[in-house]
Design a protein that fits this description.
By secondary structure, this protein is of the alpha+beta class. 38% of the residues lie in helices and 22% in strands. It is built from 17 helices and 23 strands. Strands 6-9-10-3-11-12 form a six-stranded mixed β-sheet, with helices on both faces. A five-stranded antiparallel β-sheet has the order 15-14-13-16-23. It has a four-stranded antiparallel β-sheet with strand order 2-1-4-5, with helices on one face.
Amino acid sequence: MIMEKTKKNEPEIFLSLRHLEKVYPNGEKAVVDFNLDVRKKEFIVIVGPSGCGKSTTLRMIAGLEDITSGDIFLEDELLNYRPCKDRKMAIVFQSYALYPQMNVFDNIAFPLTINTYPAPVVDRELYPLGESERLLAQVEGAKLMDTVEMAFKTKGKTARTEKLAVMCRISPAAAEIIAELYNEKAASCTPDTCMDKWKRQIEERIEKGKARLAAQGICVNERFEILDENGQVKTEQRKLTPFEIRAKVYDTAEILDLKAYLDKLPKELSGGQMQRVALGRAIIKNVPIFMMDEPLSNLDAKLRLTMRSEIVKLHNRIQATTIYVTHDQTEAMTMATRIVVMSRGFIQQIGTPEEIYNTPANIFVARFIGSPTMNLIDGQFDPVKRTVTFGGVKIELDAEFTARHDAFYRRKAEELKQWLETFDERARENVLKLLSATGENFDGASGGGGRQTLWARLKDRFGKKAPEKAYPQERAVCAEKIKRLVACLSAGHTLTVGIRPERVRIEKKGTDKGENDAFIVKPTVCELLGGEYNVHFDFCGKNMVGKADACRKISVDDEIVVGFAAKDLYFFDPVTGDIIR
């Protein structure tokens, strides 16, 4: 498959998921036609109820699940047949999966100890000399002397050298060179004089080394990395040295505030600390993509809030592309760059948190995203009077809405008619996606609760059926939907009206604030959340929720005045579940 080129003004696509599908041996279709383009440094959150296919999608990306069909590209490289260890990804699971017999240091370091990594082939004599030369050129003499003197207070030659290497950000071999030069320093030597002397000594050793390589016909670059015949740096697969591993573990522990716990066993840690260790084990691999499968679900509410902000800070610091799976819409709204909302294996909507919240694509997204969820009630639309009536409330609409309404229903009716004309597997999936948006159950749908026998599946796949007889149940659903859509164009009908709780105007009765254009009810539940109330009340036989300021106490014994403006209402088609726009 040839990757489509992005437009000049669009960010480059980093990870591309094309038509991913997962079908289990029993015929259950867990993921259907999943398409997503991820840009570098994005924080993508896949959210949906249990069983919607979000974790299965993540496992297919990681290579832990086989892909039934579709393609995964990472920077134009096809990953379908690459083992998970070669996919340049790290995953954090719902369970911490820490090794109980290892301390925190060994748990974090474990991925580095079992894998090999590409490294440039260097001249072992000249490379540390080059590091030392660059260090002397970048650091002031007095500052370097203070650093060396501090490192020399450590007991033991090896420990002293490693501390100097960590403090100066150089290799142990280069630290040994600096330590040797320091040992030879005269007592009366000033820092600047010592620096000049050290630079001359290192330059002399470098010139001798260059002459040696020239005699052997070996070419190197300015960092003394060996080049091949094409002028490219040679690389080798090797394990990291103990010092390199320690340096990476200490850096990772500092990022996650775990340095004080490196010698502790997992059983001595709290849940949040264990979760950070699991994150550290992923971070230390230094891969371009991090994946997290509900990593906070085992934590208590307060710790989840803390860890949520820590993960966002970590993402902003390391700038890695992140794909995060959760069933908690609050996590999705507060953490994501973009959100992917799923239901029954289908993508319902992809967008920024603002787009998902303010312009939900269908009833499912409107009901799932938001805390408390959007209030949804059924109202009767009168196309002649241009009104929607529910309970004792009548909302007047303008001519623009009527035109938008008619265009929507004509477009949807035509779309479903096209499905019915050539009803194939794709049309069947479109019908199932429609049902997933409306929340209707369908026992004949794959993934909808009904399971076919092996014989039935073989007949569906290989049996010779006339096109008009294929998928009779799905065809019947499609035909019935078309009939209802056409009827909506010629007569009044039901619309699903939605409003966010914060847009519901709630006042105590008797305050004289808008009582003339509202209705009066009694609360059923008043939830005090500190600065505000979530006020529940019955309306049109359904529970509704509104938000009220806590400066004035509201209880179930009070009568409240409830109102809302037409501009704050969302109108959904109950036939397809889509928002009317």
